[in-house]
Amino acid sequence: MGAACVVLQRTCRVRPCRHARREQEFAAGTHTLYKLKTAGAPLYGWSPSMHDAQLATTKVTFSRATQAPVDVRRRIEGRGIYYRISAGAYAGWWVGEYYPKVFLRGVHLPTAYRPQRTATFPPNVSITCIRFGSDGTTGTTKTVKFAKSSNAPFDRRAIVNGRPMVHITAGGLSGYWVPAGPVLTDGH
Fold it and tell me: Which residues pair with 163 in a beta bridge?
């Protein structure tokens, strides 16, 4: 395994790597796949010099939720975040990240904070939090709604199941990942 990889809850440190097996989730329904020309080093993000280009598209329909292995998660010029499917009938095709329809399961691209930071939950907003089981899949979800603004410390930010989230370290949500969108982090 490469030095940049740590397979713990399917996590890659520093940048995505080819060594960790990562499964992308597809919801049931129709999805558009793209053949893309991606010049440059696709594992290290995107830069304007890469000149990404679309070569072909195809639509696929799944009657039920399914998975596909991926080897790259990166920004495609002018489009957003995409995954490259690494095996099977669609190997080499790319699909856009779009939670909850298409996302990478598990914790990816974590950033640790020392000292911890503060997340503020807004009043009267329902927020679903996730705690992973020992196998790296969702073990427990908990939906919270506070009558008044409520603070909680967090020590990490990561992409979790295709969404930016923060990891709570104290109180009733200790060990849970919380979506970064509805909560304020350090007042922002």
Answer: 160
For the four alpha carbons of 76, 80, 86 and 87, in that order, the dihedral sign comes to negative
Q: List C-alpha distances in Å: 137 to 32, 69, 112, 128.
A: 26, 16, 21, 16
For the chain, which residues make up each domain, given as ranges?
22-105, 108-185
Burial class of residue 61, CB neighbours in 10 A (0-12, 13-18, 19+): exposed
Give the pLDDT confidence of 79-136 residue by residue, as tens digits. 888 999 999 999 999 999 988 899 988 888 899 999 999 999 999 999 999 998 776 6
Q: Nearest 5 degrees, angle CA 34-CA 35-CA 41?
A: 110
- Specify the CATH number of the domain 108-185: 2.30.30
The number of beta carbons lying within 10 Å of the beta carbon of residue 2 is: 9
- Read off the pTM: 0.73
Contact 96, 39 (CB under 8 A): no
